[in-house]
């Protein structure tokens, strides 16, 4: 299966379980791997036979910045569901949410959640 990749789209948002996370906000990185057949788009050189990576990025950014989630799992799930609903050419999508400033008592670069969802039926 072919893929369209959006790497580490940075957003400033207010997601988290802790009150401080919701009040202050923090940076998140969103990565998308959209799976679909790109043969027709590549052969015809026609965006109508593909999915615009700009539109994918805009959808993910809008969800992350306009809505609030306690869990990054819920953010990833919402992005995946809305992308599959918005773009009929997608067969599946993997969404990764990186939270580099996660408030955990450890020295780490961050935490991530990655999910893959496929179109049903």
Adjacency order of strands in the biggest sheet: 1-2-3-4
Oligomerization state of this entry? single chain
Structural class based on helices, strands and sheet pairing: alpha+beta
How many distinct folded domains?
1
The share of residues in extended strands comes to 25-35%
Tell me roughly what share of residues is in helical segments: 25-40%
By DSSP (H or I, 4+ residues per run), the number of helices equals 4
What integer value in Å does the Rg equal? 15 Å
Instruction: Give the CATH superfamily.
Output: GTP cyclohydrolase I, C-terminal domain/NADPH-dependent 7-cyano-7-deazaguanine reductase, N-terminal domain
Q: Secondary-structure blueprint of this entry?
A:
Layout: E1 2-13, H1 19-24, E2 26-36, H2 39-44, H3 53-66, H4 72-86, E3 92-99, E4 111-118
Antiparallel strand pairs: 1-2, 2-3, 3-4
Family: Belongs to the DHNA family.
Keywords: Folate biosynthesis, Lyase
Pfam families: FolB
How does this structure look, described?
The protein is of the alpha+beta class and 121 residues long. It has a single domain, classed as 2-Layer Sandwich (GTP Cyclohydrolase I, domain 2), CATH 3.30.1130.10. Helices cover 34% and strands 32% of the residues. The chain has four helices and four strands. It has a four-stranded antiparallel beta sheet with strand order 1-2-3-4. Helix 3 (53-66) packs across helix 4. The longest helix has 15 residues, at 72-86. The protein is elongated, with a radius of gyration of 15 Å. The two termini are 17 Å apart. Pathway: Cofactor biosynthesis; tetrahydrofolate biosynthesis; 2-amino-4-hydroxy-6-hydroxymethyl-7,8-dihydropteridine diphosphate from 7,8-dihydroneopterin triphosphate: step 3/4. It is an enzyme of class 4 (lyase). This is 7,8-dihydroneopterin aldolase. It comes from Methylobacterium isbiliense. Residues 4-117 form the Dihydroneopterin aldolase/epimerase domain.
